[in-house]
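MODEL INPUT / OUTPUT PAIR
PAIR INDEX: 1
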Amino acid sequence: MTEVEVNGNPQANLEEQAAVQRAAEYYASAVKLAPSSAVARNMESMARIYLGNRGDWAEESPADVATSLQKALALETSNRDITANLEALYGLMSHLPEKVTRIDEKQLERKMSAMRQVRAYQAKQ
């Protein structure tokens, strides 16, 4: 796992990591209790992105997180936060090796293009 200090304090980093892990577990429970909640899926995904990125994606697949965000967006197509988060995740993935993302560069470019179209559509609403 990548060790990054928070304000020069390694203990704060461990506490932050543990707090986000607990949050991810709560959000995962929320998704199970309310599977049609786009907000719960979005929050769970954001925690997973944080943990995945901090852990060099060793235990989490960014493609799986993207799928979760896609499901959230399908539940609430007008949710601009989910759109922005999915678009940001694709941007992050564009800087990761394909063996980590499990999505080839051309496919990722198509997904990013589609997100720009969704954002443009939402702006008209």
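PAIR INDEX: 2
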Amino acid sequence: MTATLTDGTRALPVLVTDGTRLEQHGGAIAHPLLSGGVDVTVRPLAPRQGSLTLRVESLAAAQAVASLHEAPILTLTDGDGLILTYAVTTAGGVSYAPDGQRFVVNITGVQEVTP
């Protein structure tokens, strides 16, 4: 899927690949009761977190995507609109490597944030 990655100032075209993994935990929590049965606590889903795998056309584009991560919050959109507004946590990182005619950029430690 073709998308755009932006830090609010710069925008870069990227291709989101099937290596992207975002998980969303939470929802209901079941508590077994001493008298039998179950009590359920309902809560909203947690923000998505995981990793993004993007493809770009050149080494310069891969380095530009990596440099975007100096910004605290980035937005990933496609032609249909918002895909994800996220921050890269301190545990995460950015790496890139050649893959045929393109470069693959891996971003770990992705944490969804409220825009």
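PAIR 2 NOTE: The first strand starts at residue 2 and ends at 6.
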